[in-house]
Specification:
By secondary structure, the protein is mostly helical. The chain has helices spanning 2-17, 21-34, 39-57, 61-70, 74-86, 89-116, 124-127, 134-152, 158-182, 185-212, 220-269, 301-315, 333-343, and strands spanning 274-283, 286-295, 318-327. Helices cover 73% and strands 9% of the residues.
C-alpha cells in the first residue's frame, strides 16, 4: 500500500512530461528543419562569432550575451541528441557535421579578428574560460536539459533555450580562436577542453530529456540496439571529459585554499595592508611566487622570512615568496614634511 502511494507521484510526473505523438512529430520536424546547414546557419555563425569575439576582447559581458542571442548551435546539438535517443546514425552524423562546420567558422572569425585587432589586455571574460572545472560541466548539464525542455514545450520561447545552450558553448569557441591567434597554447587547450566537455554534457542532458519525455523511433524494435549503443557512447564520452575536469577542479580548490592561507598570514603580519595580487608557482614540495600588497609601512628581511615560515607551516610546503609593496600614504603628506624641513 505504501509502495503504491510512493509510485503515484512518480507516475503522475511521467505522464505530465510525456509528449503526445502529434507534438513529438512537430518537435522532431522542427529540430531537423532548423538544424539544416543553410545560408541562415552560416550567417548566424559568422555574426555571432564577430559579436562574441569583440565582447571577449573588450571584456564586455553584455556584448558576449548579445552574441549568444543569435548563435544557431542549439539545433545541430538537439539533432545529435535525437540521433542518440532514436537510434538514427544519419541524424547523429548530420548534426555533428553541421555543428563542426559552424564551430570552425566561428573559431576562424575569432582568429582573424584577433590577428587584425590592435593589442588588447586579456580580461576576465577570456581568462575564466581557460580553466575548466566540474562547475562548468554542471552548468552545461543544466543548460542542455532545460534548453531541450524549452524547445519541446511550445509555451516557452525556444529562443531562450538557444541562449542557455549558447552560453555554455560559444564563449569557449571564441576564446579558442583568440588564444590561437595569440599563440597561448596552454589557454587554447583549456578552452578547447571546456568546449568539448560542454558539448558532451549538453548533448547527454538533451538526450536524457528526450528519453524522459519518451521521444521514440517509429520502429522501436529495429532501433533498440542502436539506442543502447548511442547511450553507451554518450556515457563513455561524458566520463572521459569529466576525468580531466575533476583534476582541474581539485587543483582549483587546492589553489584557492593556499591563497586563503597566504592572505591570512599577510593581513595578520601587515596590519592595514590589502592584497592586490597573488601569483603561485609550485615546484615539487616548494611553493613560491609573488605577492603584491598595498602597505604604508616597510618590510625588512626578518619579517619576510617570518611570513614565509608561517605560510610554509599553514600550507605544509616550503615557502619562497617575494613580496612587492605598493606604498600607501596620505596625499600631500610627503610634500608638507619636505616643506617643513626647508623652513627649518
Amino acid at each position: 500500500m505504501a509502495r503504491n502511494k510512493t509510485q503515484a507521484p512518480i507516475t503522475k510526473v511521467k505522464k505530465t512530461l510525456r509528449l503526445e505523438q502529434r507534438r513529438q512529430s512537430t518537435l522532431i520536424e522542427t529540430i531537423l528543419e532548423q538544424a539544416k546547414p543553410d545560408v541562415d546557419f552560416y550567417l548566424l555563425s559568422v555574426f555571432s562569432g564577430i559579436i562574441i569575439t569583440f565582447g571577449l576582447i573588450r571584456d564586455n559581458t553584455a556584448v558576449v550575451i548579445g552574441g549568444m542571442l543569435i548563435a544557431p548551435f542549439i539545433w545541430p546539438i538537439l539533432e545529435i541528441s535525437l540521433g542518440v535517443v532514436r537510434g538514427q546514425p544519419l541524424a547523429l552524423h548530420k548534426g555533428l557535421s553541421t555543428l563542426l562546420k559552424g564551430s570552425v567558422i566561428f573559431v576562424s572569425v575569432s582568429y582573424l579578428i584577433t590577428v587584425v585587432w590592435p593589442d588588447f589586455e586579456v580580461g576576465r571574460e577570456i581568462l575564466q574560460r581557460t580553466d575548466p572545472t566540474l562547475a562548468e560541466l554542471s552548468i552545461a548539464l543544466a543548460a542542455g536539459f532545460i534548453g531541450a525542455f524549452i524547445v519541446a514545450w511550445p509555451r516557452i520561447m525556444s529562443a531562450l533555450g538557444g541562449v542557455l545552450i549558447a552560453a555554455a558553448l560559444t564563449p569557449p569557441l571564441g576564446v579558442l580562436g583568440v588564444t590561437l591567434a595569440l599563440g597561448d597554447f596552454q589557454s587554447m587547450a583549456g578552452s578547447f577542453l571546456l568546449w568539448l566537455a560542454n558539448l558532451v554534457a549538453i548533448t547527454f542532458a538533451a538526450a536524457l530529456l528526450f528519453f524522459i519525455i519518451r521521444v521514440r523511433p517509429l520502429k522501436a524494435q529495429i532501433a533498440n540496439q542502436r539506442v543502447k549503443q548511442g547511450a553507451a557512447w554518450a556515457v563513455v564520452l561524458f566520463v572521459i571529459v569529466a576525468i580531466p575536469l575533476s583534476l582541474f577542479f581539485y587543483d582549483a580548490v587546492k589553489i584557492n585554499g593556499q591563497e586563503r592561507e597566504i592572505t591570512s598570514v599577510v593581513l595578520e603580519n601587515l596590519p592595514g595592508s590589502s592584497i592586490r595580487d597573488i601569483v603561485l608557482e609550485r615546484s615539487g614540495k616548494s611553493l613560491g611566487g609573488r605577492i603584491t600588497v598595498e602597505y604604508g609601512g616597510s618590510i625588512d628581511e626578518e619579517k619576510l622570512l617570518k611570513m614565509n615560515e608561517l605560510i610554509g607551516k599553514k600550507t605544509g610546503l616550503t615557502s619562497e615568496f617575494e613580496i612587492y609593496v605598493i606604498p600607501v600614504y596620505l596625499a600631500g603628506e610627503q610634500s608638507n614634511s619636505q616643506l617643513r624641513i626647508k623652513l627649518q
